[in-house]
Amino acid sequence: MRKHLLFIALALLCALPGRAQLNLAGIVTNQKGQPLEGAIIIIKGTSKGTISQANGHFALQSTAALPFPITISYIGHHQENVMVRGNNFRRILVELSPESILTDEVVVAASRVPEDIKTTTTSVEKLGVRQFQQSTAISPYDALQNVKGVDFLTQSLTFKSVNMRGFDSNNNTRFLQLTDGMDNRSPGLGFGFGNVAGIPDLDVESIELVPGASSALYGPDAMQGMMLTTSKNPFTYQGLSVQLKGGVNNVGKANFGPKPYTDLAVRYAKQLGDRMALKVSFQRLDGTDFIADDYSDRSTSARTSFFITDASRGGIATGIGYAPITNANINFEYDGVNVYGDDINSGGAFKYPVNYANVLLNNKFVTRTGYTELDVIGNKGKVFSNRANVALHYKLSDDIEASLSWNYGNGNFIRTNNYREYFPDYQRHQIKAEIRGDNFFLRAYTTQQKADGWNIGQVATVINNTWKSLGQWAAEFGQSYVENKVSIGQARVESNRGRYLPGSTSFNTVRDTYANTYNTDFIPGSTAARGRRFRDNSQLWHYEGMYNFKNILQIADVIAGASLRHYALASGGTLFSRKTDGSEYTINEVGAYLQASKEFSLDEGVTFKPTVAIRYDKNQYLKGGLTPRVSAVLSLGVHNFRASWQTAFRNPTPEQLFLIPVAGAGGEVGGSSVAYNGTGLVSNPGYLQAETTPYQSNTTTTAPKPFVVDPNQFTTEKISTWEVGYKTLIKNKFYIDAFYFASRYTDLITPQTEYQLLTPGGGATALLTPANYRTLQVNVNSANEVFVRGAGIGLEYGLGEGFTVSGNYTHQIGLITLHDARGSIRNDLAGVPVVKRKISNPEVVQLGRTFFNTPENRYNITLSNPRLTERLGATITYRWTDRMWYEQGITAGDVWLPSWTSLDAQISYKVPSVKSIIKLGGTNILNKYYAQGYGLAQIGGLYYVSITFDELMH
């Protein structure tokens, strides 16, 4: 690896001989002859460019031979291409006309080469400077929530997960996020960190999204799509930019809000001589997180009599029968969604024996009193984020540019896995060296991470148990309830006497002891109790290159590329299994791809462009695989019809391979034989929750049997998908982009809920007492087939006078064919085979979780005008998301999550004299709190004002 880095570093220092230098000069104006400041001028086919000054003038140097084209673009105006010749290169006159609908965008994510967004062979979305400025969102990353087909799951104010095309996840490992070509994911935890450790907002030039399988060019991690965030080139975007944001959130929270929000960002870029340019940027955010404060009684299939069943049809579920009782004073089994330590299926519940002294408690569950999220974390919800980057760019020639960059991210956040987990001080470094020409790139980068965290639910449980054991607490509760004949609420009060109160010295001491002691170490003074802290200091090393044969092959446009990736896991045994000698596991992956395309002119205004791509990837612990893609676009004038078929697969993340739970506690288990053996599941296999719950409710039913898995059969997820689409711009004012897709998933890696007995050999009867077992989420390959069908449409219409109305709608459903472990199709409890049945149907849900977690319908509507006056602009957006059947983790649940709406708005004002824009805006301005996933933070209004000074000292 050091040799690879040395090669890149030496290449960065090399200079290639160039041709004679040409000094270009020109002026950019609007149709009224007024100069346009900030217009972007790029030499077409290169990255060389500049920006016009306050008087509209620009200057640019080039060694290219005349004539050659340049591209001029400006927010809200039609892009122009101008040919630079011997008679105009010293005074290039450019006049740009206003355009409400911008459709001449160039994208690179769809095929790894620049192409017109209207004629790509696959679906692609792009957000640029224009969209960011007009968006109601507080940041470029947050603007993604307005893109069709994008489902956000907000874990924390600084951590939001992007999902597309089904299986919405809090930690989406099926969607690839790249920042300037670097994988944004955590090397060990395996999911994209998005805005936790992305580049500062002022340095974001564009974000491109490719929905659907993209593995043919980007590898197995792009199973459901990919996102490419591109930063601003310091040769093009120069000067000093400063952005100040301030605002409030948590408005209307009783005894809590509102809370302030501040955000400062600074960027400076400067060209140093003819060949070198430097940029540096920094952003600091401080605020109070949106709080996970849903204290309603938790809906989970682990509840007794959770389903409404039809006894005449074998007990098949016809609906959800559990009626939550949120008042703990009248509910034996109160289990708050965001209350921890009271979890009915994870160490917070006691089940009285069938022969208990009083019939009122015979065979009955009772949950103990838990603590809220704010209680346990103890930081009053404070959140912070630091992001920084430094980059040095050097022109080896007019067409070849080398760069060396460092990206840094640091902050605290909460993520939801099987439990809520708190990371108090996450840190990440990414260092990249790259050489890029108009027909190739070579890139090497590393991700170095420090991530310590702890499980909020587990810490709440040990606080309770340190004060008083579950058995003793239940005995005192039973004594108060039976002998003293008090109410449920009074029995809780009496059994809670002396309980550690949040914020007290005893509470904080226990919490800090467990939260700061690693789960591999014993608590000081104990030889049995271990801490709850884990760490992931894993590293990633990645090398890749691509070559475009456009200057060699005339018969077709051909590109080829390859990559090598090395993971070095480093959790000290707190997350991942270790080798027998105590060392950490490493993972190597290799991949290579080839793509060929050719455009045919069939008639005047009629073109046909087919594209074929294929890629091979191999993880050292799994079988390798090919992922082909065939796509084409037929253009009939302004009408563009596209179609594609492709396959993809996904390697399990390091977590899904090697994760092990804390000894004696519940948690997630990796699917590899290493993790499976390390958790004792070979000698002491678990029992499926779906088979155990009916037995716990009625012991006359068939007793469950241990669920035995062969971990040596653990393999990659697979998908095959086809899509058709249509894109057009009618009369330069009506833009349409529509699609339909159908996908089939097999070998899905699914966390299967199992109950493992703490004392082997106890048999099924031991499952009648929760204290006898722990709850595990074991990663296995599901034998089920999942079919996802979806369609969407985006519309934009220019109303004139700068007004545009736009909107998008997305519909998608999941169907499933259930199979048992031997591959036979399963029947529902009425005896009917489950074949292509809707995943959210109760009779399907009754048979086990699938984690599809996707709203069936969602839409956005936006009215915008960036030019109400010469200085004033405004946008208003309405978002609606359908209810969805949601399944999550061990302590979240199974529930119909309600639909939600959000009204967002912004108004902006330009102050040309100081090169600034003032923006007043808010998201969810009506402050209707909602959660995008069960157990996640409740999102209310976020109101802000920002002022941006751009390109000062240019």
UniProtKB/TrEMBL annotation:
Membrane topology: Multi-pass membrane protein
UniProt signal peptide: 1-20
Top-level lineage group: Bacteria
Keyword tRNA processing part of the UniProt annotation: no
Subcellular location: Cell outer membrane
Entry keyword set: Cell outer membrane, Membrane, Receptor, Signal, TonB box, Transmembrane, Transmembrane beta strand, Transport
Residue intervals of the TonB-dependent receptor plug domain: 117-225
GO CC terms of this entry: cell outer membrane
GO MF annotations, alphabetized: siderophore uptake transmembrane transporter activity
Main location: membrane
Entry similarity comment: Belongs to the TonB-dependent receptor family.
Designated name of the protein: CarboxypepD_reg-like domain-containing protein
